[in-house]
Amino acid sequence: DKLLSEPLSHPDFFNVKELFSLKDLFDARVHLGHKKGCRHRFMEPYIFGCRLDQDIIDLDQTMQHLQLALNFTAHIAYRKGIILFISRKRQFCHLVESTARECGEYAHTRYWQGGLLTNAHIQFGSGVRLPDLLIFLSSLNNVFEPHVAIRDAAKMNIPTVGVVDTNCNPCLITYPIPGNDDSPTAMELYCKLFRMTIIRAKDKRRQDEVFSELR
Amino acid sequence: MAGNRMQKIGSVFSRTRNLLRIGVIKKPLWFDVYAAFPPLREPVYRVPRPRYGKVRDVVPPIFYQEDQVRARFYRVYGSGPRPFDLSQSNYKSTCQRFVEKYNELKEEGKIEEEKLFEETGKALLASGVILQRRGTDKVIQQDRQDVETRDPVLHLQLQTVLEELQEKKDQEEQTPELAETQKEDPLPS
Question: What keywords does the record list, in alphabetical order (chain A) (predicted)?
Fold first, then answer.
């Protein structure tokens, strides 16, 4: 189908690079990580250095990862995929839910019951459509363990995009974004970026459908 | 309705690709997008084993040349006279100004290295920044405590005397003000 295959030929069809800059990431304090003792072993390649025991995340790598992740979400939204925002931080649960409502997508910021993805047909009834993308705005739950949904998405073959802080495990997340997940400014920046990409992708889809109908 | 739930074997993409090749699954929405824009690292599960033996710290510590000046500044003067106001992104603390002045004087090269520190202190005093040395503060506090414990009666007497002096000063200030206002009144008319 030409409508779906054409966007894949451009490297940056939705022009996500213009939505953020290095200065924006720095001002939103995305580069600040946790202390040296909290560091996860697999986050070491994404860390720039350690300033007086506090980890500083390499923003050049974050830019690359963020561009890939936003591009992926834009394409999924263009193809009318279901997106689920997940964050177990109580401080930002309202922000995440309002972001999801504005995008027209879904959010889950409460306690994750065991079989929501893996046991979906029994929990929700048969014929459920599972989400096509999970976006983690903080990949740990309230006990500082990796969120169960990361493992469940890998089980159900659902791709994930997630913000990984210096104490998180980025192995199972398809498109990790190394960055701070504790500051309010950083979370507002991420919510703003995801909201803008999804709305842009959906508008583009509506326009392209209208054009193809006219032809 | 087949599926592969083994999250520890390969990545999501490799499993779906193999299932598609067999033909037991319909192509999912995200497959083409992933194939066109793969991530920098394939999301394969790795066991998070802790390091054994001698632990090598792979992450480099961040230190700048100016840190030596900053360390000396904080050791001598304590934390600066003004608190840090981080709401402005272009805020320069007293320590930062000290470091910049130090670098300027160093580049000029006319002053010797040992005297650079004192010269920057004097230069900052000249530009209006008051720096209090950490040692002297402690001495003043100790003196005050000694005075209070020795003679509370004397302290009270001193307080009353000071208050009287201040009242006298206020009265003196009021009378010249009255005189000034009287002088001003005839002027505009």
Answer: Mitochondrion, Ribonucleoprotein, Ribosomal protein
